[in-house]
Design goal:
The protein is mainly beta and 123 residues long. It is built from no helices and eleven strands.
Length: 123
């Protein structure tokens, strides 16, 4: 499966962005999905994960209440709604697909990765 992340950009603190991850090549319902991010000079960090049918989802504690992960298998697309953005949210955001029904908070089990989309939060 090929993944294409989009929706990043420059936003002011307190603003919102919605990232999308479009899949092609195979149906998205075959995979659990996740969002990760990597800030300059830092390791890749888990952001959120969602099971194959959206029945279970989890957002990292540091982003809980501000970020929401969702998916539309009929559109082969996953989303990350980001509200109340902070400068420390600045990073390249990656979407990833994991074979099987259940997401992981670790990057290693994910089989496919998108190219990343840059989110910059700055005034």
């Amino acid at each position: 499966v090929q993944l294409q992340a989009s929706g990043g950009g420059l936003v002011q603190p307190g603003g919102s962005l919605r990232l999308s991850c479009a899949a092609s090549g195979r149906t998205l319902s075959s995979y659990a999905m996740g969002w990760f991010r990597q800030a300059p000079g830092k390791e890749r960090e888990f952001v959120a994960g969602i099971d194959w049918n959206g029945g279970s989802a989890y957002v990292s504690d540091s982003m809980k209440g501000r970020f929401t992960i969702s998916r539309e298998n009929a559109k082969n697309t996953m989303y990350l709604q980001m509200n109340s953005l902070k400068p420390e949210d600045t990073a390249v955001y990656y979407c990833a697909a994991k074979t099987g029904p259940y997401y992981s908070t670790n990057a290693a089990p994910y089989d496919y990765w998108g190219q990343g989309t840059l989110v910059t939060v700055s005034s």
